Amino acid sequence: MGHDMWQRGKWVVVLGAALMVLAGCGIQSAQTGEEATDAATASAWTLAAPMRIDGVRTADGGRSLVVDAEVPDGARDCVRSLRGELDTVEHGTVYAKVTFETRSLDQDSGCTGTRQVRATVKLGEPLGSRRVMVNSMDVYTPVGATPPALRQCGENGCDPTPPRCTSSSYGQAVNDTDIPKHTSWEERGCDDTWLVLDLSTRMGAACDDASDGCSSSGVSQRWFYRAEPSGWRPVATNGDAGCAGIHKVLPELPEHLCTSLPRLDRG
Asked: What tens digit of pLDDT does each residue of 234-252 get?
């Protein structure tokens, strides 16, 4: 009898210990699940930069920059921790960066739209005449701008060459024309106000020797430009000989720039 009671008491102790172990495992499993959920939520947020910079202006007496940017937007929170930071100042240029965390890389986030935001970058001292580069891409300058806004620089830099009858100025004109890159030009006439260029772009395969059966062709266009403070601006295109054709679309072009124009070689 005493032996049986001892055996039952032993099983009670063992069973109680087992329940405690299982309960402990259950609590541990629940905590692990919560941690996994938190980790999954945290992983949905990714560090990113704005899709587009829409403008930069100074504030606080030139000691700060306000950057207008475009970021993701949707039904849920899509952007957090928006930050504008001063990276460095070198060689007359202020390097700034704008970053934020976003869910937009998650396909189920619903962040399919966009919205405008403003990020402030503290400089510590007035910008002065220095340029600003944002996120190592867009460059802005206060020179020639209407304060407090800064002027965005283009493909030809922040200080494009004034329109002149020079080879470098012609190159700038070609860069500002909606044509393929690696286009060559031939000047047909130039004065203080007008410029005429024949532009030629090679098409097809690049051929070293026509005898090997390879053939390529070229596309030629004649462009007319008017001088503006920022450079030559393309205003018309026409390939006819003489003045008759171009005067139909650009009657103000001086005759001395079109009278001797040959018919455009189409290549």
From this structure: 999 999 999 999 999 999 9
